[in-house]
Amino acid sequence: MKIVIVGGGKLGHQIAGNLLDRKYDVKLIEKDKMKCMKLANELDVEVICGDGTEIEVLEDAGTRNTDCFISVTGSDQDNLVASQLAKLEFNAKKVIARANDPRNLMALRTLGADFAVSSTEIITNLIEQEVDVAGVHLLATLNKGKATICSVTLPYNTALDGITLKDIDLPQGSLIISLLRDENMMVPNGFTEIRANDELVAICKGNSQNQLMKILGSTK
Fold first, then answer.
1. Span 199-208, average pLDDT
2. Distance CA 218, CA 197 (A)
3. Domain limit, last residue, from 75, 98, 128
4. What's the pTM value of the predicted model, to 2 decimals?
5. Which of 50, 164, 189, 194 is the most exposed, fewest CB within 10 Å of its CB?
């Protein structure tokens, strides 16, 4: 998996290290020359010294068609611009942006990134999700990133069509809290049957999000 990270601060350094440990192909963009030298010395990663909001720099980093693009600078404005360029100009398959100010989460999600988050653990989990990211949305983080509220739209060929919630082996630490069907919202219980194209909202603790998304993303 090819990954481009913009921002070589503490968060970018930590994410790059985590992904390198998993043997991913990682490139890191940082505009501060001193930080670039430090990153190159401490991590076995290719560092591009430049501004991640500039097309030429993103091109040099191999952003075009990259599997995952992550912008985690200290500026939400820069993260938004970098995310928009990665998505619209370079066709990055998955775009994740850091929200330094929680008030900017919605703008980042709406205007640029597939996901806007603030937790290193959640970012790493999002990179490794094996479900179709087009149908998954992170709505909020809770307890300093230890829990998430996310939604997933079941595929048209879901293996769960007609199955009641009580018959689905949900991961420990996860709970389905609402269901949207044909623009009608309901609070489900164990006897609620789910159908293709339902949008489910769940609250997940710890690593249960990845497990739940795999279950809900299963197809016939």
1. 84
2. 13
3. 128
4. 0.61
5. 189
